[in-house]
Amino acid sequence: MFRKLLNSELGRPAVDEYKALAKSPITVVLDNVRSRHNIGSAFRTADAFKASGIVLCGISSTPPSPEIHKSALGAEFSVDWAYRENTVDAVRELKDKGHIIIGVEQTENSVSADSFLNGERRLERDKKYAVIFGNEVHGISQEAVDLCDWTLEIPQWGTKHSLNVSVAIGIVLYVLTPR
Question: How many Å from the N-terminal Cα to the C-terminal Cα in the chain?
Fold first, then answer.
């Protein structure tokens, strides 16, 4: 028999306690993500995996927003975020700050997420990473892909060639976040 745990039993930190916790070395970059619900989901997932922050770029909306809040459930208050008008400028800025740039995109020579699941690869805790997720229709712009140190692809076996960006964020943060 299983009893569902109450929220009070989960031991979750308050926002101020969360902000003081050590974070993963991963910063999430959203390249022109148009849905505020997907952006809110990105905040909530970034909170769950203790991402270092989110950089919202281009047409990506920013908090405060009722639609973002509806999906984020308040994570827009716990996760640090910044806005940049241009994704390429944001990526260059992160590169200049020493981040390794990873694009989540189907490209020639992309690395399979499976290589992280089976332990062949892992991120190093002492390095900083920026992981770019693209627009719901067009993915990551080619100009941003050109700045990537490598790209990561989520294997898929169905008829579609992509996943919803919020689903992709969850999968990628799960497989990449150092334990």
Answer: 30
Question: Which 3 state secondary structure label does DSSP give 6?
Answer: coil
Q: Are 83 and 90 in contact (CB under 8 A)?
A: no
Burial tier of 125 (Cβ tally within 10 Å: 0-12, 13-18, 19+): exposed
Q: How far is CA 40 from CA 36, 91, 139, 173, in A?
A: 6, 21, 18, 15
Residue ranges in 131-164 assigned as alpha helix (H): 142-145
Domain ranges in the chain are 22-176
Would you give the DSSP letter of residue 32? S
Vertex 29: Cα angle to 28 and 30 (nearest 5):
120
> Which pLDDT tens digit goes with each residue over 19-70?
999 999 999 999 999 999 999 999 999 999 999 999 999 999 999 999 999 9
Its CATH architecture, for the domain 22-176, is 3-Layer(aba) Sandwich (3.40)
pTM above 0.85, yes or no: yes
Give the integer Cα–Cα distance in Å for 69 and 76.
Answer: 7
pLDDT in tens, 91-112: 999 999 999 999 999 999 999 9
